[in-house]
């Protein structure tokens, strides 16, 4: 019985160690590596990111600590203290996942197909946005049309599903963005909540009715940078991963 109990304890311990290793933030499993996934944040450095306004990473406004990439609190101003950060290279067809944790009343976003040459003045860089928001508190949730500024929406264009699975403030939610040519998807915690086709009359009507109508051909870039938004609210990111998908016609 003692031998059996000892063996059982060893098995349980080994299983716990394996589960812990698999769950370690900012790492890739062998399966993910084989599938082509790459980390966009290693949990320790700002490698792979720069300011949307210049070649260097911002000296203030962002913090790397305890395996998290965090926007610091500057009172909720768009563009915040340091401004947005973007990847150091562009992406076209991809699948992106990121865990995010918001604070009460927070606002942020993950943008893609970003062109930093647009809007060089105050405010955020221009691109399509996966909205990150405290829907219950932040006033932006009640603006726009039919909830198209709420969490996981294609900001100011397509509202996320009303039955989207949202975890409470302080817990980790997982965003997933999938782009295959004209086809785009937003996912929240393993549920698809937005789907669209670019380059269509329907999509262009959405643009024309949005705040983006002032930017010619908005949303029709074939590649662009990925951006994390500094909106002046404390928001943390981890496990930011991407894999490039084959080109589509």
Protein model, in words:
The chain has 249 residues and is of the alpha+beta class. The protein folds into two domains: 1-25; 36-244, Sandwich (Jelly Rolls), CATH 2.60.120. It is 14% helix and 31% strand. The longest helix is centred in the N-terminal third of the chain and has 22 residues, at 2-23. It is globular and about 45 Å long. The N and C termini lie far apart (64 Å). Residues 7-14 and 16-21 have low confidence and may be disordered. GO terms for molecular function: hydrolase activity. It comes from Terriglobus saanensis (strain ATCC BAA-1853 / DSM 23119 / SP1PR4).
Question: Brief description of this entry?
Answer:
This protein is of the alpha+beta class and 249 residues long.
What's the shape? globular
Count all strands and give the number: 13
For the CA atoms, what is the radius of gyration? Answer: 19 Å
Topology order in helix (H) and strand (E) letters:
HHEEEEEEEEEEEHEE
**Strand composition percent:** 25-35%
Supply the CATH class of the largest domain: Mainly Beta
At CATH level 3, the topology of the largest domain is: Jelly Rolls
The residue fraction in helices comes out at 10-25%
Main sheet makeup? 8 strands, antiparallel
Number of domains: 2
Which parts are unreliable, with pLDDT below 50 for 5 consecutive residues or more? 7-14, 16-21
Distance between the termini: 64 Å
Structural class: alpha+beta
Number of alpha- plus pi-helical segments: 3
The oligomeric state is single chain
Mean pLDDT: 89
